[in-house]
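Quick one:
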Amino acid sequence: MNSYKCEAVGIYLRAMTVEDTDSIVAWRNQASVRKNFIYQELFTVEGHLRWIREMVDTGKVVQFIICDLATDQALGSVYVRDIDRTHHKAEYGIFLGEDSARGRGVGTAAAKLMLRYCFEELGLHRVYLRAFADNIAAIRSYEKAGFVKEAVLRDDVCIDGVFRDIVWMAIVKES
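Output:
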């Protein structure tokens, strides 16, 4: 893997390992993180280890840890899932688990680094994502990274008995 770092924001990406399990489970179970995911069930260590075994180890998912360049502190995670090697596309996801990572461009910088990895290393042509339509900060960050809104799916998911709109966004590799 090439070096994926952003000096301006002070982050780099490294491969996720089994040793990151406790951090990932803790981050994903934070109410502030979980509320922005369609899948809102609590994470478990066993479930995450199964994710690694069945998804990451089989190449269906590529997942990295976002780290602070100065301290090596893990800040969150970025990944692509459902990698479709026939159609050269995958679904993007991110979560920031540390409060210190929020509001300073870490999400946008991590997205740009992951997109570079997707296009250069995985040979993808298209990367897409789904976000709750009311998650304005995330949508703004995705737009800064180059994603474009393609559709709004009205009442697409039901969370705690409330139907929610989903925004589909994507970026296509420039020729």
